[in-house]
Amino acid sequence: MVNFDDIRPYEDHEVRPTIKRLLRDKELLQAVARFRFPVLSQKAPWLMRPIVQLYLRKQFGGVSTVLEVQTTIERYVKRMLDTSSRGLTVSGIEKLDPKQNYLFISNHRDITMDPACVNWVLFHHGFTTLRIAIGDNLLSKPYVSDLMRLNKTFIVNRSAKSPREKLKAAKHLSAYIFHSLTVDQSNIWIAQREGRAKDGRDITNPAIINMLTLNRPKTEAFGDYVQTLKIVPIAISYEWDPCDVAKARELYHTRVLGKYVKAEHEDVASIAAGISGQKGRIHLAFGDVLGSNFESAEDVAAELERQIQSNYQIHPSNLAAYIRLHGESPDILLAKESFEPAQYKADEEELLKRVSALPQEQREIFLAGYANPVVAKFALQEQARDPNLAVSHG
């Protein structure tokens, strides 16, 4: 593991020194105080920091291993799911073997919650918890990096500039992921694309697959190496996205101005919003393990995309947004009938409430973020009825 010290998660011998460092970090203490006690932390920050420090020391003071860190965090995840969601459901995990290890690739909607939900499900089904990929662009603060690496997160180098540096970083990451799967027997989570799908389109970037296969020996067939990785697609669906307004605003500015400049530490704010914001119902659908019948990264990406989009659980919020944008059809009305009328009406009212609070020019973008999973699912159904049709994602 020495060769991967620059990107790997922390190990047991690094836990105590890291926790001691975190408990002295004023910025972390203030961030926790603002999150837990928003009013008091503004009026008397000098008072809240020592109180938060005592609280965290009580929670983590006796923790000395990565497993103990995750066991402690598990309690917080449970509390978070209880207070900010209406339940997490799972399908397809019965097809997997807890004694095996897998490379889980999912759609990406929330920076922290996506892998947290997968980890939660694996933990409670007897699987080894994940090593989680995270871009170094999200580690703008030292305490964030420490927190992430304590929780089995490894670093994806996105700051490399030259083509040579980027290739070197990609090879290094590819080797680490293969080492984790085959030598350390660890489960891995990585998103199907760089960055969140802010527009609700769950598209797999073949560059991710190219990176994963950079470590393939030249003598090994491409498909055989893919099978060795034991890739499992996961479709994660949230009834509500706590960052939906921010995503619509970013997409609007990108469309009008050609770019969007994030505020300093905006990603950290998105992490906090994703954790604490209301998410409604959450569903994780585990797909089938990919075999060896692939000849290219594009083939693998297409299969990942197909499974994720077809397994995505549509919520009433998605359907209500689709109807607002595209109108009704026989298929749409049939799908609408699968929901309890009261449940659909409640989601429709909440959607309209959110839309009405937005500037007029951002409303269509906002609705599309919820409607696009329905668009993708219907396109797949049309293709299944007529294989000669090419799936178009717009």
Give a written overview of the molecule.
This protein folds into two domains: 65-311, Glycerol-3-phosphate (1)-acyltransferase, CATH 3.40.1130; 316-385, no CATH class. The protein is 56% helix and 9% strand. The chain is built from 17 helices and seven strands. Strand 3 (130-135), helix 7 (142-150) and strand 4 (153-156) form a beta-alpha-beta unit. Helix 9 crosses helix 13 and helix 11 packs across helix 17 (360-385). The longest helix has 26 residues, at 360-385. The N and C termini lie far apart (43 Å). The mean pLDDT is 92.
How would you summarize this macromolecular structure in one to three sentences?
With 394 residues, the chain is an alpha/beta fold.
Oligomer: single chain
Mean pLDDT: 92
Count of runs of 4 or more consecutive helical residues: 17
Q: In order across it, which strands form the biggest sheet?
A: 1-7-6-2-5-3-4
Classify the secondary structure makeup into a structural class: alpha/beta
- DSSP strand content: 5-15%
As for the CATH topology of the largest domain, it is Glycerol-3-phosphate (1)-acyltransferase
Spans with pLDDT under 50 lasting ≥5 residues?
none
What radius of gyration results from the CA coordinates? 22 Å
Count of spatially separate domains: 2
Whole-Å distance between the termini?
A: 43 Å
Largest sheet: 7 strands, mixed
Order of helices and strands: HHHHHEEHEHEHEHHEHHEHHHHH
CATH class of the largest domain: Alpha Beta
Number of E strands: 7
